[in-house]
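PROTOCOL LOG
Step 1. Enter all chains and additional molecules of the complex.
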Amino acid sequence: MRASETLPLAAQAQPERAARKQHAWLKRLNKFKWLLLMTLPGVLYLFVNNYIPMYGVILAFKNYTYTKGIWGSDWAGWKNFEFLFISPDAYTITRNTVLYNLAFIVLNLVMALLTALLINEIRQKKIARFYQSAFLLPHIISMVVVSYLVYSFLNMESGMLNRVLSGWFGIEPISWYSEAGYWPYILVIVNAWKHVGYLAIIYFAAVLGINREFYEAAAIDGATKWRQMTRITIPLITPVIITMTLLSFSGILRSDFGLFYQVPMNTGALTPTTNTIDTFVYRALLNQGDIGMSSAAGLYQSVVCLILVVAVNAVVRRINKQDALF
Amino acid sequence: MPHTSKFKFGQLGIHAFFWLFVIGSLLPFALIVMVSISGESSIEQHGYSLFPSEIRFTAYTFLFHDFSEIARAYGVTIICTVIGTLVSLLVTTLLAYPLSRTELPFRRSLSFYVFFTMLFSGGMVPWYMTFTNLLPMKNTLLAMIIPGMLLSAFNVLLMRSFFHNSIPDSVVESATMDGASEIQVFFRIIVPLSLPIMGTIGLFQTLSYWNDWYNCMLFIDDPKLYNIQYMMTKTLTNVQYLLMKSSSSAQAGDMLAKMPRETVRMALAVVGFAPLLIAYPFFQRFYVSGITNGAVKG
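Step 2. Run joint prediction.
Step 3. Record the structure below.
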């Protein structure tokens, strides 16, 4: 259409325009060369730390032998995945990871919300800040320290818990580190102890973001504190609650390696209830040297997580576009 | 107010709830400290207790008798924390600032390149192989600084939105019009303006380097390079680990007989977490505000 009309002219101008365009492009590149150079260390780091390992997922499809290396090793097809999903481990670690995460999500949400709502009711701001600092302390210490703290309670001979149970209730000492059945409860409590304070502070920040005028108006209308809480605070922070919860759901196949490895002190007898995908991958790699199976398990985790995060993001976008990740 | 008494009662209940919470958070630390200064006989009789019947500092004299191992482990932790945090801040800022400039070429692709690392990972095995086979970092200090810890995409994006929201384009424009180069703009204007966010991210990074045991466990076999956290891990599962470095086996046997087994482990735990606990009151307000800002903006 128009192109054919102006063909002679365009044909003449095109090389020139292209050259000018290229020139402008180079000029722009030149203008921003320092800014682009600045990004280089970070870009290189992510390339080595994240993108090379992404390419390394081909290990899951290889029959890795040390002498042949990553490139030379023979292809194994889906063999590694077959071995993984035939073994009873695949079910156990998936079940453990998912169930622990569900328990963490529910318990931590309830406790953190309750805490955040109650801090909001404290009128002496200095005291409120003291409380926040105190229950954030467990969040900043390492899992190694946590494992010491847990050990001081659960140690068979002298641990505080056995002493209290036998001294006050006459219960025979329990060998906590060899009875797998107790650990789901222990780990859920330890996890809550470590993270509820942190989550409470995030929810409290959301509560503080609510316009104070709502409360003033409600108070004038004679609304009680309880009504203000249930009719103003909770509805207004619901988007934050939903977003945070959905985001935790997207990580349902991930687990905190330290919690499941350090706190049970890497005890073999406890693995039926403490082995998760992350500890399984670690042990398969470093104790058994089974590179094929461990990378297959890792890839299984990563792919499910990717699918979940994309799905969850789509849901979050529908609820509250601002909170969506992308 | 007509319902003051009811209100006071409510406040009292709330404070009671929080005091329980605070005690629950702090009690385990107190227990460890008390165990570390208990006499062995007190532990034999009453177990670990907050109120030991006999107070002894033998565990500490035992630990400090040969402090060189602990000092070395602390040295490793401190070197990795200081270097790691500084380099990490530099690399993060250098990446985040250009990404905040709207006119930057490839801006969208670069942002996606950073962001995608949060969505998908190749998993631990290829990552481990990258830093052991491709880049031979095993048994070097670099292994406790670089893999997985130096740069987090989340921090980059947090910082990018800080620059985007709090440094107006006009500041940069007027500076470049005055003839300042991009590098000058960065160091003279951007860095000073971004001290609050650098403080927050610096604190997060310091804590993660200080608390690291994972990289040490994966990449370090040489006990001379163990950091304090990993030394604590080793000692928890096997308290005799503290003696393994002793020069002769005869000496080790002698020490083993004299070692206050129960309490020395807890004394090491105290030595391990004390610096963080002592520093905490000084940075806690800053830390809380960092978390809330991160949660709101990130």
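Step 4. Note key features.
The mean pLDDT of chain B is 87.
Residues 261-297 of chain B form the longest helix (37 residues).
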